[in-house]
Amino acid sequence: MRILVAVDGSKYSLDAVQCLIDHADWYRDKPEVLLLTVHLPVPKLPGMGAAVGKSQIQKYYQQEGEAQLAPAKRKLDAAGIASEASILVGPVAESIVQHAKAKRCDLIYIGTRGRTEIGKAMLGSTATKVLHLSDIPVLLVK
Amino acid sequence: MLEQFATQVFWIGLLKIIGVNIILSGDNAVVIALAARSLPAKQQKAAVLWGSGAAVVMRIILTIFAVALLTLPWLKLAGSLLLFWIGVKLLIPEDDDVDVDASDNMISAIKTILIADLVMSIDNVIAVAAAAQGSMTLLILGLAISIPLVIFGSTLLLHLMERWPVIITVGGGLLGFVAGEMLVTDPALRDWLAGGGVAFAEDGKPRVGGLSLEILCGLVGAVIVVAAGTWLAKRKQNGVQAQVETEQPKS
Q: What is the distance between the alpha carbons of residues A129 and B133, in angstroms, rounded to a whole number?
């Protein structure tokens, strides 16, 4: 059983992690957990190359991503569940679904209320989009 | 000078400058936010403070020059064409295969902030100079209020632009608007416009059939920039979507 858990560092995404920990005994074997956070790409503007390099932007993604993964990682570690973490850059829902497919996950765990209250009202939540895009079972944690 | 503060025109002008400056400073904000990040947390604030202080002074001097230049015939026309060009370019994503050394000491981070501010501020300088319409008080107040706002809110602006890249399109449209507005107020075009049936009001503003020609041309300019920029960006991207992946060590 291989489970992808998508997190954004918010309380709601941690609820999804907690749910996974609480119900780890649903699965016959100890589940293999893949933690994922997705960062939106920095806009590419004219003249930006003069001041900010690729490595600096890469470092920015890395730092932001690690900060978003850290609380979930701590929770899983404390519960004794091993996890592999990755940071992706791109459109959030699409990247989550693609990653789950590429890593041949059996299930996607995702919290339904993330950081973007306004974004949700305007565009529909990331979780809803994942639900639409994915052909892998998705577990929404409320 | 004090009477100036009381008028409605003054407050509208001030809001216009602050608005133009904040929207057009999104690009600067991105650079500042990213450049400051490569420093240790303690030094980040100091770098931003010094960088912004120097940037404010530099920007005010440049804009004062621009205001003086814009009173000369033909220069509004030239400035307007330059703004059109910058506006269209803003909408076309830049290639990111260049790499510069990350600055991990304060002096070079301040330098980065200043260079970025200089390179990316030509649009703001011209647009703000045009919006100030000759008032120095307006100009200095507007810049002094909006630049620190942009610099200290840089991380917030960066996140907003990540989530809603349409902000960049709005910035391009705004540049097109200011460019169109500026184009028709060039003194060199006055006689030509008057010959073409444009009436000039008492305050020297051109009007066509009761409508302000400035606003009309501004709208046309905004549409041209957004349309041209979006089209060129589409053609350039052509379905290329880069994805960067950074794997963390397994634990």
A: 48
Number of separate helices (H) and strands (E) present in chain B: 12, 4
SS3 category, A133: helix
Rounded-to-integer distance, Cα B20 and Cα B133, Å: 14
pTM value? 0.74
Average pLDDT over residues A11-36: 84
Cβ-based contacts of A10 with chain B (< 8 Å) = none
Contact between chains at A40 and B158 (C-beta distance less than 8 A): no
- Residue A105 maps to a domain: yes
Size of interface A-B (CB pairs under 8 A): 127
The structural domain count of chain A equals: 1
Q: Which residues of chain A lie closer than 8 angstroms to B155, CB-CB?
A: none
Which residues of chain A neighbour B119 with C-beta distances below 8 Å? 47, 50-51
Least Cα separation, residue A18 to chain B (angstroms): 19
Q: Provide the residue range defining the domain that includes A72.
A: 2-137
What digits encode the pLDDT tens for the residues A41-96? 888 777 676 667 777 788 888 888 998 899 889 988 888 888 888 999 988 889 99
Nearest chain B alpha carbon to A70: B248
Pairing assessment for the beta strands B206-208 and A83-89 based on DSSP bridges: unpaired
pLDDT of residue A116: 57
| Band of pLDDT at residue A97, cut at 50, 70 and 90 | very high
φ and ψ at residue B209, rounded to 5 degrees: 50, 45
- Nearest by CB: B243 against A46, A47, A89: A89
CB contact A123 to B (< 8 Å): no
Interatomic CA distance for residues B173 and B90, integer angstroms? 10
ipTM score: 0.73
Mean per-residue pLDDT, B136-159 = 78
Question: Does residue A114 sit at the B interface (CB-CB below 8 Å)?
Answer: no
CATH number for the domain that contains residue A27: 3.40.50.620
